[in-house]
Design goal:
single chain; about 80 residues; 2 helices; elongated
Length: about 80
């Protein structure tokens, strides 16, 4: 296996979405623990998390949203 294809020579990025805020802390702790306990396999893992929220409306309500308008009605 060449250095160009080695797992440790490449930069990896991932985004994981969860349903509940509590899951972020648990998943973060699990990934940190795996990287610490098994450095030969997982030293490249450096987890962190960001908590946000969504203001998405159900699909049937999109036509009444003040933030979403048909393309032809937007000011140019």
């Amino acid at each position: 296996q060449s250095d160009a294809t080695s797992v440790h020579s490449r930069r990896w990025s991932a985004i994981i979405f969860v349903d509940r805020k509590q899951e972020t802390a648990v998943l973060n702790a699990l990934l940190k623990d795996a990287a610490k306990r098994f450095p030969d396999e997982y030293s490249f893992i450096r987890p962190n998390f960001l908590i946000g929220y969504s203001t998405m409306q159900p699909t049937e309500d999109l036509s009444t949203s003040q933030h979403i308008q048909p393309m032809d009605s937007r000011k140019q």
